[in-house]
Amino acid sequence: MEILAFGVQADEKPLIEQAFAASRHEVRCLDVFLTADTAPIAAGYEVISTSVNASLDHRVLQTLAAGGTQMVAQRSTGFNNIDLEVAERLGLTVARVSSYSPYSVAEFAWTLAMAVNRRIVRAAIRTRDFDFRLDGLMGRDLHGRTVGVVGTGKIGEAFTRIAHGFGMRLLGWDIAENPACRELGMTYVEKERLFAEADLISLHVPLLPATHHLVDAAALRAMKDDAILVNSSRGGLVDAAALVGELRAGRFTGVGLDVYEAEAGLFFLDKSLAGIADDTLARLMTFPNVLVTSHQAYYTADAVRQIIETTVGNVLDYLAGRRGENVLVPRVA
To answer: Where does the record place the D-isomer specific 2-hydroxyacid dehydrogenase catalytic domain (predicted)?
Structure first.
């Protein structure tokens, strides 16, 4: 069988092709993302694979089902981009990658935190111009300061272990406590207290209706004026317009964003010539204490291999009629 894969990055393509070849199936890799405009390409493909920035709303899912698609294998943990109720009604099987290397995201979150704290981007730009002054580059020790970890699952735990290595005071918030984080010395508190006391806040929760704009205007106002905020989870966790307002008021030492709530149609694409019409994102990127990256926290060779291996396994389970642990919507007999 030939599987159609949407939104494949150049670095991913050989890994995907090798993995499916080893399973004795072929794969056609496309660099375009699955949208209402590109969905007709899937006609005739029983199985397709999508990336995190695909749009699988009712229109796209109806087009896929009408074209003969029966299984969607998403190459990500998050699935807020998929209308699961519509998929179930159409009889589609939907699977995701429930987990991969938590270190990839946790380490990148720390990369963002350290970059904004120590003004790494500004320093690198200066030294390329042979400007070796230190004016405006002063950071601060994180040792002894307080970190607030919002979401203490596998990624949050990995982030916490690094924070423990820095010698930081650990605060956590989650619907369920992680004993491993407790053993490291974490104190679980209400999120309002975490926002108010933390010098560094890092987000590691999924995007659900209950977590949409978890960091809203009130949460931002509660934070310290010199706090650092890092989001490497899902863009919709942060009210970006409210964040712009706080930044305009001169608040926060730094903000590191690997995700953005309206990133679909922007991230993973080259917009250098066309520019962007998103005023909020454009405004965010004008602040010298804000660092935006394009949803690359997961993007290590280790994590991508695990994602692809799990995706191939999900497809093989579907073809064998098995319901694997990663299935979100079951196959309808």
So the answer is: 8-328
Residue with structure tokens 């896929």?
64
For residue 78, name the pLDDT band (cuts at 50, 70, 90): confident
Asked if residue 222 and residue 77 are part of one domain, the reply reads no
- In three-state secondary structure terms, 156 is helix
Shared-domain flag, residues 272 and 324: no
Please state, in angstroms and rounded to a whole number, the distance separating the CA atoms of residues 118 and 74: 36
DSSP state of 10: T
Q: Are residues 189 and 40 in the same domain?
A: no
Q: Are residues 95 and 118 in the same domain?
A: no
Same-domain check for residues 86 and 191: no
pLDDT of 333 reads 44
Instruction: Verify that 169 and 254 share a domain, yes or no.
Output: yes
Residues serving a catalytic function are: 234, 263, 295
Distance of CA 138 to the CA centre of its chain: 29
Bridging pattern class, strands 254-257 and 26-29: unpaired
Cβ atoms of 269 and 145 within 8 Å: the answer is no
Number of domains observed in the structure of the chain: 2
The CATH number of whichever domain residue 177 belongs to comes to 3.40.50.720
| DSSP assignment letter at 97 | -
Q: Are 74 and 99 in contact (CB under 8 A)?
A: no
What is the pLDDT at residue 330?
Answer: 81
User: Distance between CA atoms of 248 and 198, rounded to whole angstroms?
Assistant: 21
Whether the pTM exceeds 0.70: the reply is yes
Residue owning tokens 């950071």:
139
114 with 158, same domain? yes
Range of the domain at 125: 102-292
Q: Is 178 helix (H, G, I), strand (E, B) or coil?
A: coil
Mean of the per-residue pLDDT values for the chain? 95
Rounded Cα distance between 32 and 5, Å, is 9
- DSSP letter (8 states) at residue 242: H
Alpha-carbon distances of 278 from 281, 285, 294, rounded to whole Å = 6, 11, 15
In the chain, what percentage of residues exceed pLDDT 90? 92
CA dist., res. 49 & res. 73, Å (int): 5
